[in-house]
């Protein structure tokens, strides 16, 4: 299972508004973060709008990532809003 | 050392740890962040801090490593609270020891400025009236972090 899927995580306001904190996505056809974002955005208006935001940050295996960052089966990909710690 | 914890933040043990290295060090500089009652909303009663376990520690370590490259620092102690924090309580502590005060001062401010824009923490304000809203990232915080990048051409 872990070898053929990608773990997706959402945090803070994004987690609350999408109503989900984590899920497994089949790795088929996914080569980079953009592929995941586009696939998730097809789920409906709320997903399309929230993930379209330029402010949404992305991480692959807990390191900040860009749209073109490669994603492999077994990786963990996270989406979250700008950080507000301290 | 980097610690993420839900319990109250005691400063004395971390300050003592920083001074442990005396007399090899000549300066300890620290910053303590407190939960204010005025944020994006007024009458804030408490904050709720969410984070990304694992990535938080890695992101802060990267900031510490960068500080270590830029200044001569001896030791760093960073503690950040998560979960519910009442107004008036401490949220974050950044302490740096060094042979010289200038390095300690600058590294401490650098770590705090970068932590605010790079470590995956998210803050929610809860008011006495029961309003609960996620805090927006501030342009002033982004500017504070950018200042260090500009000065080094990064």
TrEMBL record, chain A:
GO terms for cellular component: molybdopterin adenylyltransferase complex. The keyword Protease does not apply. GO terms for molecular function: nucleotide binding. The keyword Cell cycle does not apply. It comes from the Bacteria. GO terms for biological process: Mo-molybdopterin cofactor biosynthetic process. Keywords: Nucleotide-binding. Belongs to the MoaD family. This is Molybdopterin synthase sulfur carrier subunit. It comes from Vreelandella halophila.
From TrEMBL, chain B:
Pathway: Cofactor biosynthesis; molybdopterin biosynthesis. It catalyses: 2 [molybdopterin-synthase sulfur-carrier protein]-C-terminal-Gly-aminoethanethioate + cyclic pyranopterin phosphate + H2O = molybdopterin + 2 [molybdopterin-synthase sulfur-carrier protein]-C-terminal Gly-Gly + 2 H(+). The keyword Transmembrane helix does not apply. Keywords: Molybdenum cofactor biosynthesis. GO terms for biological process: Mo-molybdopterin cofactor biosynthetic process. One of its GO terms (molecular function) is molybdopterin synthase activity. It comes from the Bacteria. Its EC number is 2.8.1.12. InterPro entries: MoaE_sf, Mopterin_biosynth_MoaE. Belongs to the MoaE family. Heterotetramer of 2 MoaD subunits and 2 MoaE subunits. Also stable as homodimer. The enzyme changes between these two forms during catalysis. This is Molybdopterin synthase catalytic subunit. It comes from Vreelandella halophila.
